[in-house]
Design goal:
The chain has about 350 residues and is α+β, with helices and mostly antiparallel strands. Strands 1, 2, 3, 4, 5, 6, 7, 8 and 9 form a nine-stranded mixed beta sheet that branches. A hairpin with a 4-residue loop joins strand 5 and strand 6. The chain is elongated, with a radius of gyration of 65 Å. The chain starts with a helix and ends in a 9-residue tail after the last strand.
Length: about 350
């Protein structure tokens, strides 16, 4: 009985253990099923979230529709910004350039030349003969030894006159007291012809007077001032335009502008050449001579500011007339005037 009870008790315990194991097994299965269900639910939930996000993204454009005017306004704003920036850059570059120019100008202004020592000698004037040579005026290769002439021949010699292609190549004298002395006396003091080429003391010896008059006989052998009559020929007059007067100080070059007959009136006593109006009238009168032996060079301008040379000689068998060749001084004149 006791063994039966033990067996019964043992069977019950075994049944109870079996029942506990089944319960445990079922519980474990339920938990596994629960976890599986949770895992399945989580992907579903994730899918729903993804679907929700995708739906939100698709719905977003529907909430903000596209407007072209807004886009255009944005473009305009960008262009304006670009223009402003460009203008600022150009303005900056311009200011830099102006600043650089100003600096360069200041450099120039700041440079000061060191003071030059003052010259103790006055500036040398340009050689008038070189000016004439450069202008094409022929200058003879001629030298005059005035010291020897005055010492060995006659102390009254103060100049020398030369006209190319004539016999006129003589010293010029002036007596200190007698204006007619060399009309009748020769270089050596002897009386008679041919006399000398001379001036009167109404003229200075430096040829600075408005009109310097030189006299000489009209010799039959062609000497002295007989060569002036060659200028009665118009062709000769045109081809021989220059007279050269040498002095100890310098050479004076004259251009012949007139050759004509004139009365025997004393020119220097008849006209006051220091009076500009009188001098002008004299020059105008020269143009009025229209005889066959009278010539006037066109293109040569002579004014009261000029100094002229008058060469005077007799006319054969016409004691009341003289033949004049007149020339204007070129020294110091503007080369464009001759």
């Amino acid at each position: 009985m006791e063994e039966q009870e033990k067996q019964t008790q043992t069977g019950q315990q075994a049944q109870a253990e079996q029942t506990g194991q089944q319960a445990q097994t079922e519980q474990t299965g339920q938990q596994a099923q629960t976890e599986q269900a949770g895992q399945q639910a989580q992907p579903e939930q994730t899918g729903q979230q993804a679907q929700t996000e995708q739906t939100g993204q698709q719905a977003k454009p529907e909430g903000r529709p596209f407007h072209p005017s807004i886009w255009m306004a944005g473009v305009i704003v960008l262009v304006l910004i670009a223009l402003v920036c460009g203008g600022i850059a150009i303005s900056k570059a311009y200011r830099q350039e102006k600043a650089q120019e100003q600096m360069e100008e200041l450099k120039t202004q700041a440079i000061v030349e060191p003071p030059q020592p003052e010259s103790t000698q006055p500036p040398q004037p340009q050689d008038p003969i070189q000016v004439l040579t450069d202008a094409g005026v022929p200058i003879p290769e001629k030298e005059v030894d005035f010291a020897a002439l005055q010492e060995e021949t006659n102390p009254d010699i103060y100049a020398w006159i030369y006209i190319p292609d004539t016999m006129i190549d003589y010293p010029v004298l002036q007596h200190p007291e007698d204006n007619t002395y060399y009309l009748n006396y020769n270089l050596d003091g002897s009386k008679g012809y041919p006399g000398c080429i001379y001036t009167e003391n109404y003229n200075t010896k430096d040829f600075s007077d408005p009109n310097t008059v030189i006299y000489g006989h009209n010799m039959k052998n062609g000497s002295m001032f007989a060569g002036l009559h060659k200028f009665e020929d118009g062709g000769y007059f045109e081809e021989h335009p220059y007279v050269y007067v040498y002095t100890p100080e310098q050479l004076y070059v004259y251009e012949i502008f007139a050759a004509h007959q004139y009365s025997n009136a004393h020119i220097l006593l008849s006209y006051d050449f220091t009076d500009e109006a009188v001098y002008r009238e004299f020059l105008e009168d020269i143009k009025s001579y229209q005889g066959a032996a009278d010539h006037y060079r066109e293109g040569v301008e002579v004014t009261t500011e000029d100094r002229i040379l008058t060469l005077s000689t007799c006319i054969a068998n016409q004691g009341n007339k003289r033949y004049l060749v007149q020339a204007v001084l070129l020294n110091g004149k503007d080369p464009s005037q001759f």
